[in-house]
Amino acid sequence: MRIDLNLFVVFDTIYTEGNLTKAANVLNITQPAVSHALAKLRDHFDDPLFVRQGNKMLPTAIAKNVIADVRVALRQLQVALQQSRQFDPSSAKKRYSLSLHDSLEAAYLPYLMSHIDKEAPQVDLTSTRVRRSDLENKLASGDVDLAIDILLPVTENVCHTQIRKDRLVVVAANHHSTLRHSNKNRQLDIETYLLQKHILVSSRSSGPGLEDFELGRLGLQRRVGLRCQHFFSACRVVESSNMLLTMPESAAKMFSKQLKISIYELPVELPSIDVHLYWHLNVDKDPANRWLRNKILMAP
């Protein structure tokens, strides 16, 4: 059975004031309107709820039994309505879901979690990897709050803004038998590049990488000796082998601080990699979503 939630506001006010006229004054409505609301509540509960004793309306046993739950529910509704207009990270209890791919997770999560721990101690974050073909549906359903990815074809229902411009570089082990003596200036020629065994990082089990498309356009082909899912894993393999890895420069610089790898210029020209932040139009004005978006936009 459906019931107007405003009736419980009237119920709480009558309980507090103990008088229909006073309740009407507090609610800024007429006394007949208060009496009409009370009549509906009496029908719903099949109980008088309040009985008159002199000038006072005294609650019945059923009214006393439900008042605590009614007040909790009204308070929760009030908090929800307030949070729809404003977001206080210091007291908010919320879990965000953020779609990130591999090296972007390593780039953004340390920064985000340091700020969340300081500013929003009761906010939690889940990092997930969503298939790009499913991203718009996940954003629309609320399964994912925000996504960080390369520039993708999306409809007008998905908002996005560029947050980083990256380029591809080549990483090799510091001890690489071919490169360590002949490439002090970190330059690679195409012949040397093609003679090496390569690692391709991809979530797909088959198909070429971005660099392979460009090589193919030039009538060239490299040998991919390992295909794996994560850049850090690939960098660990590079560190202990003579294999090369082509990857975004920002991630390469980050991993080179931890591993014994060197960064080289890619010997073919490729367009820059534009990294975008995505969110659905239905949360564009949501203060909670906007707060996390702003944190990401301020990331170094």
Structure commentary:
By secondary structure, the protein is of the alpha/beta class. It folds into 3 domains: 6-85, Arc Repressor Mutant, subunit A; 94-165 and 274-297, 3-Layer(aba) Sandwich (D-Maltodextrin-Binding Protein, domain 2); 168-271, D-Maltodextrin-Binding Protein, domain 2 (3-Layer(aba) Sandwich), CATH 3.40.190. Helix content is 43%, strand content 23%. It has 12 helices and 12 strands. It has a 5-stranded mixed beta sheet with strand order 4-3-5-12-6. Strands 9-8-10-7-11 form a 5-stranded mixed beta sheet. Helix 1 (6-17) packs across helix 2 (20-27) and helix 1 (6-17) crosses helix 4. The radius of gyration is 31 Å and the shape is rod-shaped. The mean pLDDT is 89.
What spatial form do the alpha-carbon principal axes imply? rod-shaped
Number of helical regions? 12
Fourth-level CATH superfamily of the largest domain = Periplasmic binding protein-like II
How does CATH name the architecture of the largest domain? 3-Layer(aba) Sandwich
* Number of structurally distinct domains: 3
β-strand percent reads 15-25%
Structural class: alpha/beta
N-to-C SSE string, H for helix and E for strand: HHHEEHEHEHEEEHHEHEHEHEEH
Number of strands: 12
Distance between the termini: 53 Å
Spans of at least 5 consecutive residues with low confidence:
none
- Helix % is 40-55%
Q: Give me the oligomer status.
A: single chain
With strands numbered from the N-terminus, the spatial order across the biggest sheet is 4-3-5-12-6
- CATH class of the largest domain reads Alpha Beta
At the fold tier of CATH, the topology name of the largest domain is D-Maltodextrin-Binding Protein, domain 2
For the biggest sheet, the summary is: 5 strands, mixed
Arithmetic mean pLDDT: 89
